[in-house]
Amino acid sequence: MLPSTSVTPGRESSCTSLGIAHSSSSMGGASPSPPSPPTGDWALWQMIDSLYPTGGFAHSLGLEAAAQEGLVTDSSSLREFLSASLHQAANFALPLVFSAHQAASDASQSLIDTVLELNSRATALYSNHVARKASFAQGAALLRLALSTYAPTLPRFQTLLALRKEIKKRKHGGVHHAVLFGVVCALLGVENQSAQRMYLFVTIRDVLSAATRLNLVGPLEATRLQFESTPLLEKVFEEKKNRDVKDSYSSAPVLDLVQAMHDQLYTRIFNS
User: Fold this and answer.
1) Which of 53, 164, 182, 270 maximizes the CB count within 10 A of its CB?
2) Is the CB of residue 61 less than 8 Å from the CB of residue 210?
């Protein structure tokens, strides 16, 4: 028989009804060990959740400027914008995600030096200051999240502390989101191809979220557009996956030009 346990009046019934076992009493008063941190698939679901606080919903990826310039006015033109955004993300960002993931997975390399080299390449590749600034902002948010959420229980994340110091020391201006996204996925045990799929998913998620808040489409139509874009997502992924950073390029010059105009908008609700 288990030893009797003192329970605060009024709470015993709720504990019993929920089936909560008083493990500390059965262990002689020892505190229960903390649960193992999520890795692999569980971490994957967390990273693509809309509540993941990296600031993605503060950015429209150029959609707000495109809407104000009359380039996107309805669901048909939104589909075209969505396709251009996905191809742009696949051509430009996926090689950064892939290369950063590889660097973090290869213990024989100096992770910090490799990540900083990728970061420098990314800075040079960005053709407009709005997109570059947005990438730095989301990268800073992801770095802060990784250090506060994962580092306390996963020792391998401690290397990000050194990375943050080197970024400040070498005056990089920050770490780009796509680069750090690949690193964090690797350290969490998410496979490289899964990380690349996640990045494309987050791209379409954020564009459609922005479209809803800009009243270009309603939430139901946005959900339908996302579902109907599944073949496009798969096609883009299969064509662009597993490419080195040397293959990174911008494939949507009009999108770059429009996004660069965002700072000049008279009114705006997004940061980019």
Assistant:
1) 182
2) yes
